[in-house]
Amino acid sequence: MLLLGIDISTTAAKALLINEAGLVVKSCSTPISISQPRPLWSEQDPEEWWHGTVTSTRAVLQDVDSGQVGAIGLTGQMHGLVLLDGEGRVIRPAILWNDQRTGPQCDVIRERIGRDRLLEITGNGALPGFTAPKILWVQEHEPANWSQTRHILLPKDYVRFRLIGEHATDRADGSGTLLFDLRNRDWSEEVTTALGIPAHYLPKTYEGPEVTGRLTSGAAESLGLPPGIPVVGGGGDQAAQSVGVGAVEPGIVAVTLGTSGVVFAPTRRAVVESEGRLHSFCHCLPDRWHLMGVMLSAGGSLRWYRDNMAPDMDFDRLLEPAEAIPVGCEGLLFLPYLSGERTPHPDPLARGAFVGLTGRHTLAHLTRSVLEGVAFGLRDSFELIHSQANIEMKEVRLSGGGAQSPLWRQILCDVLNTDLAVVNVTEGAAFGAALLAGVGVGVWPDVNAACGSVVKTTHQCHPRPESASRYELQYDQYRRLYPALKDVFHELGG
Q: Which stretches of 154-242 are assigned E, i.e. beta strand?
């Protein structure tokens, strides 16, 4: 049997085929465009997700017997808003997770529900990235579109609708909407009522390995697959990514060093950080939750830096001279808040900065300071998770594009002062979605068994005591920068 994972990320629609041994048979990605029609706005056309899914799926099925595909799992970008009318037609472009227009609506949510009550129910504070404030924005600014609305979906679940003809979501992704009762693992009547959102507009919820429906004949024809294939719940991108690297038991922490940076810690109960600085969501397997710290610009900081400071260099050539720069970059610090920040500062007006520049600093110093600044930002999440959940971090598993850099791995290892493990899985969320699909049709008895069967550690990175000690001092300096600069950031960005 082959298992198909589909990932609707912000930049591409990806299809991935694996076999029952967990080996990748083939993968393909189709780019997706992003529209930014106004400052702070970020939108996509859901039809592009579907076309990308069809293109990528047909590509991976070339030279493969499509009759061997036994199940489909879905994953994708979280927090987006897709509005459908009663006929299933898209009403307006989808508003994405990185859209920042909804600050005033976040204030409204806190006023109607209460900050502490919102945290108690949903596990999260009101942030512009979440789905709920986007709905309120449409209610206020586009009443004609809201009056047409009959169904509310998340990005990957629009693709699910096109696959099975049903409105459904998984509980990991649902818990990222700010409309979910975290402990009861379903929509919160109290929140939806307070926000004027009819409960029947929201999709039915499932656990990640549960079958949500079967491939319709029309979708099957478009994809080049037989009809009737089960489609499982799957998970939001970070939950599926964590399944892909085996972070499903408390004590195994996943760090993703991609465009954004994520620290993901599974828990056996819902744990809520009192200030809302950490996200608390359902995991995409039953009876599991997770705490998650998110920095918005991790690998994105390095890409911005390369594109603007050294556009003619590939990343390997850019990073090579930085290896010779001393730990701490001779007094240079980088704040990676190029897109605002979530953890530990939920502040859309936070800004990036190089601090400590002198005439002796070179391009190589700046390069290394970007790597170190991102590592310090990830440590912020580690510190919060440890203090809130008191989780014993038995193993930290690193993935994402940044994990391919030995220099960045070592810097992160030294800054965190803990061993880092790299696993054999490089395909991320789509791989996790495929594993969930396999569990859904009985290839493995549960998610733990699936991860234990196919996810293996390939090598480990160990902290260097002298470097770790020097970074400890610099991390203290780094932590003092945001409070010192916050007022200036807000004056500049207000």
A: 168-170, 180-181, 186-187, 204-206, 211-214, 230-232, 235-236
Give the list of residues 6+ apart from residue 457 with CB closer than 8 angstroms, or none.
397, 421, 422, 423, 424
Cβ distance 69 to 3 under 8 Å? yes
Name the residues annotated as catalytic: 237
At 481 the pLDDT is 98
Query: What's the one-letter identity of residue 254?
Result: A
Domain count, the chain: 2
Say if residue 324's pLDDT is above 70: yes
pLDDT at residue 297 is higher than 70: yes
Contact (CB, 8 A) for 394 and 407:
no
Structural domain boundaries enclosing 413: 246-424+464-494
3-class SS of residue 336: coil
Give yes or no: residues 208 and 336 share one domain. no
Q: In CATH, what number is assigned to the domain containing residue 284? A: 3.30.420.40
For 94, half-sphere exposure in the C-beta direction (CA atoms, 13 angstrom radius) is 34
CA–CA separation, 236 and 467 (whole Å): 36
Q: How far is Cα of residue 42 from the mean position of the Cα atoms in its chain?
A: 16
Q: pTM for the whole thing?
A: 0.92
Burial annotation 99-124 (CB, 10 A radius, 16+ → b, else e): bbbbeebbebbbeebeeeebbebbbb
At which of 207, 239, 271 does a domain end?
239
Strands 43-44 and 94-95, bridge-based pairing: antiparallel
13-23 pLDDT, tens digit per residue, is: 999 999 999 99
Say whether the peptide bond before residue 250 is cis (omega within 30 degrees of 0): no
Are residues 313 and 402 both part of a single domain? yes
